[in-house]
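Fold this sequence, please.
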Amino acid sequence: MEFRVKALDREQAVLAHHVDAVDEVDARRQLGLLGLRVISLTPVRQTRLFTRQAKIPLVIFSQELVALLDAGLSLVESIEALTEKEASPAIRRPLEQILGRLYEGQTLGAALAEHPSTFPYLYIATVRASERTGSLREALTRFITYQQQIDALRNTLVNASIYPSVLLAAGLLVTLFLMGYVVPRFSSIYEQLGSDLPFASRLLLQWGQMLEAHTMAVIVVGGTAAAGLGYGLSRRATRAAFGNWFAKIPAIGRQLRLYQLARLYRTVGMLLRSGMPAVTAMTMSSGLLSEALRPAFAKATLSVREGQSIANAMEVHGLTTPVAARMLRVGERSGNMGEMTERIAAFYDEEIARWVGIVTRLIEPLFMTVIGLLIGVIVVLMYFPIFQLAGSVQ
């Protein structure tokens, strides 16, 4: 959900921009983490079914910025170069505004904070933490690695679902072709013969005749259903409902939980290595979790704030596994918690990738078998009266 915001920054300057959040509480939390004091917060009513907004590709932007900084250019010169090369007005405009703020003497983090709809608050917080330690280039490099690893895990899940989706779509199209075109042709032939048909064949032919008689209605209903499904999946609430439903399936629910924990640990590790305190890093990362896990993580964050160790807090509230809990304790003893949480995330990623590979190898032949049986049954029922007729002639 998008909100229109007026807020005061640390220099008491009034800022007006937009922020994407789950609800008003989440929006105020994001703004508070950016050091902004809210004056007004108004939800933006979406007037169009689908809205398109140009987004700055953060990985490419960060890679180019790091390359320019490594080449010896100053931060202002680097932003100038990136602004001059950009051809898209929608992307060039926020870069020009950021450059203007840098000319005024503001920090990069403060300039980025004025564009929360373009730069996520996690990115802004990483930049601000690095400015305190003077390690902007290292922080951007860590963010690039972080985002590439997150994208790699997401791509693994997406790629695993492509082939089964293609199989289902192909099977559905073949079935519709048989039922809507081939079956009605056979129906007219059997009517001319005037022979009695088996019940299953007669029922199949009646379905085919109905589809042929109401072709336009079927197309309209199917198109409306597809558009409604696409619109529903674009809504956050619908995706959350589907996620909660899948989470109730034991095998899938465990992997979805591991996926969320992998993102959580990777984000916390990246923020810790950027120089951010543990409690702040955990608070900023809570938005990555589903509604079901957020209460437990909020309790774990409160326990850490009260002085309890991260390993004990996460283990007590069920936000870790036995292996990850041991790794967290090792990280606390060695004082290298940031790197250890990233290793835990990599461990979870590998486990999820193995599970996805096994499920994919099982589900592909299963789908092919189901589709083959469905098409085979339709063909057999169409030709069964012919077989009967041939037997009677003999």
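The beta strands are 2-8, 14-20, 37-43. The first strand starts at residue 2 and ends at 8.
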